[in-house]
């Protein structure tokens, strides 16, 4: 069985393996991901007011995002360990949600999309953990890659004005 180009994580025998990136050029690569934690107004207001019993929720979530981005290869089985050159985390407290945006950067032979998405996920999980005492009905939502630049496959931007038919494909 020859390796299928569409399934690069399978070797010639059909077994899962880590893809070699040794032949790829090291280039500047960036990725931005985002996600939301939906929460009642009262929970969002308590964070704005700084009255959460567990402390500075936003600072802890930012640190969690950075730590997770740096350890993505330990969370996701086939990801390569890469040297991140930057991780930027922005958390916005909205009326009924927390918007987390993580941008990662490397000068490597492989991309940083998974690091950005993992950072977002860790920040959202941390927010949930620190706020669940106020309300256990918090919802992690809309975790996605927003943009990536660099590398062999070029740039990608998440479509913002897709048709309903295109949108239904995303929901499946």
Tags for this model:
172 residues; 31% helix; 5 helices; disordered C terminus; alpha+beta; 5-stranded antiparallel beta sheet; Alpha-Beta Plaits
Can you describe this structure?
The structure is a single chain. 33% of the residues are buried. This protein has helices at residues 41-49, 57-70, 72-75, 113-131, 164-171; strands spanning 27-38, 84-93, 97-108, 139-149, 156-157. It has one domain (27-149): Molybdopterin cofactor biosynthesis C (MoaC) domain (Alpha-Beta Plaits, 2-Layer Sandwich), CATH 3.30.70.640. A five-stranded antiparallel beta sheet has the order 2-3-1-4-5. It is built from five helices and five strands; from the N terminus they run E-H-H-H-E-E-H-E-E-H. Helix 2 (57-70) runs antiparallel to helix 4. The two termini are 31 Å apart. Strand 4 and strand 5 form a beta hairpin. It is elongated. The protein has 172 residues and is of the alpha+beta class.
- Give the strand order, joined by hyphens, for the main sheet: 2-3-1-4-5
CATH architecture: 2-Layer Sandwich
Radius of gyration: 18 Å
Highest CATH level, the class: Alpha Beta
Summarize, please.
31% of the residues lie in helices and 27% in strands. The chain is of the alpha+beta class and 172 residues long. The protein has a five-stranded antiparallel sheet.
List the topology elements.
Blueprint: E1 27-38, H1 41-49, H2 57-70, H3 72-75, E2 84-93, E3 97-108, H4 113-131, E4 139-149, E5 156-157, H5 164-171
Helix pairs in contact: 2-4
